[in-house]
Amino acid sequence: MSPADVPPGLGVLGPVTAWDRDGNTIALKGPRHRSVLARLIVARGRVVPVAHLVDDLWDDPPADPVGALRTFVAALRRALEPDRSPRTPARLLVTEGPGYALRVPTDAVDAWWFERAVADAGKLPPEEATVRLDEALGRWRGPAYAEFAEQPWARADSRRLTELRLHAVELRAEALMSLGEADRAAADLRAHGAEHPWRENAWRLLALALYRTGRQADALEVLRGARTLLADQLGIDPGPGLRALEEDILQQAEHLGRGDRPAWAGRPGEAGGRARGGQSGQADGRAWGGRPGQGGGRARGNHLAGDGASGQADRLGQVDHGARTVASGQVDHGARTAASGQVDHGARPAASTQADHRARTAHPAQPDRNPPTDRTARPGEAPAPANPAGRVWEQVAAAYDRTVAPDARARLESTTGLLRNLAVTGGSGLLAAREHRLAAVAAAEELGDPELTARVIGAYDVPAIWTRLDDPEQAAQVVAAAERTLTALTALSSTAHGHAATPAAHEADKARLLATIALESRGTRLARGPQAARRAEEIARRLDDPALLAFALNAGFMQTFDRTGLAPRRDGIGAELVALSARHGLSTFETLGHLVRLQARSALGDFTTADHHAVAADALAVRHERPLVGVFTRWYAALRLDTTGRAPATEVEAAYRDAAALLGGAGMPGLSHGLLPLALLCLRLRRTLPLDFDDHTDWGPYAPWARPLFLLDRGRRSEAAEALHATPEPPRDLLQEALWCLTAQAAVALGDRRTMARAHAALIPAANELAGAGSGLLTLGPVAGYLELCSG
Question: Could you tell me which residue ranges the OmpR/PhoB-type domain spans (predicted)?
């Protein structure tokens, strides 16, 4: 096959996308184009009649839906076969009979390749199967058919692929156990079981993995926790696989093995657990190498598909080991679940109540030259986990569980330390941390101890770079709790006797509460936010506490948006954060400082310096395993490509779409909602391209500023004028200059002198900045150009 004959790659294991033969993203235009492509992929080469496509694409079809569909198909053909000669029949997206079909090989579609890889893995030796499954699971970029997953035509295939992915995770765990790597399997299965608590096979495999690492008590606790969960939440008993495995562990059945006999060497599908009544000891009776798509874990007719289980797991507090929750303050096995079974650079089960950021961000333990030999394996028992981080985690967690009483308040503080570390892992970790943070605060308030509550609230000093809140309602609750605690702490300070804490300690706690209030009030017009930030910084400087000062500087950064044109002030805050954090080993705040400076220098058009800070932030992120940093630096790379002016618009748009794909699992809705359409709008306006957005574009919170321009592009001037009159002032955040410039451009187009004057007055302080570039994500170009338009 010549290079010209190599078909493009098509992806639905995440946002719907396509890649050329060199792996570059192909611009597929708008959501309708991607939905046509996705619908044809669902059909797997079968012809989809035009009438069906129209029904699937529109609830309320346009005047000429068939003509619109043909336009989408023509654009897709040009994108997928750019070298095809005019009037030459299409080879990939073909017209056949009453409709269209996709004619591409199996390897061209990531979902089809994934299905085959999982099926093949069941027939391979365990070493090869592990490699194949790692590669297959690595193809996932987000939920299957992400933006279309809940469309009726995509729902079944999306859920089927999700189920197959869960099946592959469990298949990989069996392969690892067959290789004697039960400790690795256990680490992965703990998070898997917590996210999908109704999959009995996940609990069975986790218990077996723990047993094979010599942890019988933990294995039994997993099984009993699963029984409690199923009984309490679904009113059912465990299936035969779980019951059989529990009995076998109690009897220490020889056939279970503890890593001494690969499960792969037994009957197909037997990874441990005596066969009962024709079953292979698995919760779903699945044989190794069974039909793709029939993942494990059916709770006898009550199994919930993977797409619904995750949300239920959240409601149940990420159930694991006796259905204990992080919010309850218990940091034993339940806390290990919250941390996904991994040590996150200082995530300590018994976290200190002091603000010791150096300990929090320490490097993970390195392999010892002389590994400790404090526990000798008994005959037939596997040694402790070989991974040093996992070994330390398990030992410390077990010691904490033995020594700290279940109702001790120290558990609540330890939980907060874990949540802080969990938050910086991103994705589901960030979402879980936010949820359980509120529960921890509520639990502390219930105990009636303002000093404890202050420590629980203030210990969550997670660096924040984005100015739009992810959950405003939750933020308001945190602010209210912090204000109540601040009042109680002030009253407590005035009565010195009877309390162990010193006024200085109270001052540090007050500063953390104030910084929290400022951070959680960002983007609002409340005077309390800037006031709290200034007070927190004053206290931190007086106490000469570096970690406290870094937290207060972050709060101050979030309150530097009372007008436009404040990038130089934020640049100064970023510079102090970098210097302070580098001196005192505060790696998370050092990373934050580089990102702050990246944003500020971009606003000022100094991309050489911004590039330096992007590289520095990425280096710290790699060293300290901070995956969310890559979301921001990837967006910055797209902005950087945009600002060169040399790349074609299609290439820049593809870069923005690639960056947006990272947001799907980042756990930051305040950042992700509406951001991609806004970035594309800015790009097309700057380059005077057709806007090319459809009526269903989700602009998120940016709709009031985008709508007038969208309506103008459609020739609906009277509606655009009404929309412009209804446009509010932009929120005080990183995008306020960009939103003011959108307002200015619409006002100029409509000849609205009053709005032009308002925009001009608001933008004057930012005359030397690039609109929007202060976000580090997008730009509308020099503010000076919009000032000139408004003055004309």
Answer: 1-104
